[in-house]
Amino acid sequence: MEGYQTKEYGQPVKRYVQMMDLRDNPELIAKYRQAHSEEGSWKEILDGIRSVGILEMEIYILGNHLVMIVDAPLNFQWSEAMARLATLPRQEEWEQYVAQFQNCDANATSDEKWQMMERMFYLYEK
Known about the structure:
With 126 residues, the chain is of the alpha+beta class. 32% of the residues lie in helices and 21% in strands. The chain has a four-stranded antiparallel beta sheet.
């Protein structure tokens, strides 16, 4: 494994990490992967994510388990940004579309589906 290069932002950032499970169905997982591919992603959704101040968003998968990493400026306010994101073009349509793949309540908002993770370790400075 080569690892994944991270972006450099030229400013301090903070990171959010969330998790969610997909339905344990290989066909649905393949469709979910396609929806998140460069070719399959919706331009309006990518534009909306950037417009609320998110610098980078990555989703990692293992089986049906997802981990999402979000980098944002230090002044980023998660709750405000997610509330604004929910009102942007096609966001509601996107949430309804991806709900078929997710092991969550079909009517849950994105912020309800993705569970925020708590950092329990980092390379401490001593």
